[in-house]
Structures are given as structure tokens and as C-alpha cells.
Amino acid sequence: MLSLFKYNWQVREDWFTWCESLPEEEFHIERVGGMKSIRETLTHILDCELLWLNSLVDEKVVFERRQLLTQLNEIKEYSTFVQSFTEQFIEQLPSDYENNIIEVQRRDGSILEFTQKKIFAHMITHEIHHIGQLSVWAREIQRKPISSDLIIRIFE
Amino acid sequence: MLSLFKYNWQVREDWFTWCESLPEEEFHIERVGGMKSIRETLTHILDCELLWLNSLVDEKVVFERRQLLTQLNEIKEYSTFVQSFTEQFIEQLPSDYENNIIEVQRRDGSILEFTQKKIFAHMITHEIHHIGQLSVWAREIQRKPISSDLIIRIFE
């Protein structure tokens, strides 16, 4: 299942390249659904990857410029930062990680428990879901979306 | 990874229930992106699950009424049929299935080779991607979409 991170990073990178050819206002403009813009949806994907990875580690990492992100280039830097963190983490996983129980504290102080496998499954499916939203917006502005078809991709 | 089929089937069932509360024309109306309507996007998800499962078996199954599908109820019957086929198939998989090489013949007669693991990964991510599209359309008609968040779901 962890190879699906690689699939997601490849699709994400293709969307970044796709955004480069977009008139800048289309990147920022408010839309219906998702996180309301291409910019915010891509940023949200990264926020969630980082949030969940941080739930799995003792030494949490912070992207110092997180509150200052507005431009595509800055979001790409954020992606490089988050991806590098996730890559390092999954490369050193022990073979029996799947059923490890992770405690996650909610804002109200209560604790939820998830298996490490479930957290990874959520991180992966969360990104694919939001990328599906970008594909509708692409068609709305008469642009061909990035193909998400995993079967045509080489990523292992 | 195979547990993600269960996640998808649960989300799909929730979308079917969501569609029941929708004015019928909203189910059929042509939209931008995806497979151009809620009806056709749900049908496409099922077509693809069946197509890829059939690439893995000697005795292919056919849903006799496939060409006659127009109504939500009929698509739900198609989903029950496809899900049952997939469930039976994944329940009897040998433990070493992942790297089995599957030959898939394209329309032009050429043969592509994929691991069985890759085909399953494609089937799963394909559905999540298209469900993301439905969520944008839901907001376009001022309806709250089904949550796709895996972390809040219990499916194992």
C-alpha cells in the first residue's frame, strides 16, 4: 500500500507542472467544492499529509513558511518538504508497523486510536479524492486534466 | 490494500443513498468533467471494476442488463452484482498473488503486462478519483457531499 504514496507524489508533481501553464488567476480563483480553489486544495493535501505524519512521530516537523504560502512556487517548496519527511519516515518503518496503535488527540482533548495502517490508508485516499476534484475544475476551464490512471504509470 | 475495496463499497453505498434524496433530473443531467453525469460516473466506476476483475479470471462474468441501465435502482443492482464478484474473487486469493503477472489484451491486439497488485491498486484509486468528482458536483447543486474521509469509517 505504501507504494501509493509514490503514485500520489507523481500525480501531484504533474498537477504542479499543469498549474505552471495556467493563467495565474485560475490558480487562485474561488470555485465551488473541494477547498474552494486549486491553490487551497493543493495546500490542503500537503497540510493533511504533514498533520498525519506528525501524529506518527515524536519530533514533529513544521514548515516555517506555512502561513505565508500564496504562490505556486511556494506550495511546490512545501510539497518537497512534506514529501521528504514522509519518504524518510516510510523508508525506516519496521515490518510490523501495520497494527501499531496510534493515539491522536483531538482539539477537545479527547483521544482517538487508529492503526498505523489506517492512518496511511487515509493519507493516501484523501489525496486521491481531492485530486479528483481538480479534474472537474480543469474541465470547467476547458483544460485537459492530468490523468490519474494508476495503471498507465510507472512508479515502483 | 484489499481492505480499500471495502472502504470504496461503503462510500459508494452512501452515495447511492444520497442519490435517492436527489431530484431525479439531477441524477441524469449533463455536467462538466468526470463521465459527464452522476449516473454515468457511477456506472463507469462499476464498468471499470468489472472490466479489471474480468482481466484476472478465466470465466468472465457479464451483467446481462448492462446496456439497459438508466435508473438508480438498476445501477444499484449492477453494483451488487459487481461487488459480489469482486468479493468472491479477493476472498479466495492465494497469499502470493501480488506479483502474479497478468496479461491484458488491448483493443489493437497488443498485450500489456501488469502485476495483480497493480491492477487492484488501479481499481481502488480509480473509484476514489471519480468519487472526488461527485463531491464537486454535489456542492454545485448546494448539497453536502458524502464524506470520503477514510479515517472516520469503520470497514474492517
From TrEMBL, chains A, B:
Record-stated family: Belongs to the DinB family.
Cross-referenced InterPro entries: DinB, DinB/YfiT-like
Keywords for the protein's UniProt record, in alphabetical order: Metal-binding
PANTHER family per UniProt: DAMAGE-INDUCIBLE PROTEIN DINB, SLR1116 PROTEIN
Secretion signal span: none
Pfam family, one: DinB
One example GO MF annotation: metal ion binding
Binding residue positions for a divalent metal cation: 44, 126, 130
Superkingdom classification of source: Bacteria
Name of this chain's protein: DinB family protein
